[in-house]
Amino acid sequence: MSHELTAEQEHLSDEVREFADSVVAPAAYEYDTKRELPYDILAQMGELGLFGLPFPVEYGGQGKDYLALCLAVEQLARVDQSIAVTLEAGVGLGAMPILRGGTEAQKQEWLPMLARGEALAGFGLTEADAGSDAGGTRTTAFLKEGEWVINGTKQFITNSGTRITRLVTVTAVTGETVRVDGSVKKELTAFLVPSGTPGFVVGPSYDKVGWHTSDTHPLTFDDVRVPEANMLGARGRGFANFIQTLDEGRVAFAALCTGAAQGCLEESVRHARTRNVFGHPIGENQHIAFRIARMQARVHAARLAYYDAARKIGAGRPFKKEASLAKLIGSEAAMDNARDATQIFGGYGFLNENPVARHYRDSKVLEIGEGTTEVQLMVIARELGF
User: Fold this and answer.
1) What global pTM score does this model have?
2) Residue ranges of the Acyl-CoA oxidase/dehydrogenase middle domain (predicted)?
């Protein structure tokens, strides 16, 4: 399978790169310090069509493939992971479940505003005792007089409390069956919960180590009532549909990881060429040059891994293993490159105004979010037959 980009894909990547360098990068430190989501930048991203890249034209999208989204996410992540994950989660996690599992009425109602970047959606799967472990889900929903009544909590939900958030999709237990061995299997179903629905409370923003600009909140559902028509997909298919979303999302997340690793590489190359110690650039020292060479190798491997997975999505081929490989390789590349870049910069790399320092803070969550490193290893091992 060829991993060469088409002329159109190259143009998109270059266009987003220029936007990232000229608009996002100059504002990144200010917004990181304020811990504010830059709505003006999101609006410009919407005007560029970034939020609608993988969606059909009839729903307000750009009609591109999933790789197009990944290319945009990578370029943004070079300079600001928070902005990149706002796009990645807004499209891959927030809107994609509606495209994949929604009714035609749901698609027509929600996708156009999401594709234009005028609205954001959250993806409500994780709970205190549930995430990868679906059996730990405690949020419940039951039918009463033509409405679903939802009770429970969710945590670590991205894009759930912005001023343009319009809904979250959530999984809830809608029934239980007893297996032959006596164990209980929970029936999980997904629902669309519009923002502002009575009983739906967005908790205070988390005080995070990194991703300061990204919006992340806990959610509470206290007798939240939504119409029966707000069920997303078939009853009992909530977790299965969300797992499909996560598999796709991991590919875009891997692109984010690759962009972070690339950003650290670019900063290190620049610094190694211009920072003089003992009368010559530090890049002339072999141990610095070799460290940067390894950074380049990690970026190359990470990019090929997510290209491969994204191509398979576009071709309609199985990609679960490739998605986990891309996420594993990419997240480790980002973390390792952030560590090496900080070392190359020395004291300058410990200052938050330096992009390298922000990558160092931000990159650890790449080994945790959208499936930990251990979950990726588990998926890969299972796909190998273990």
Assistant:
1) 0.95
2) 123-224
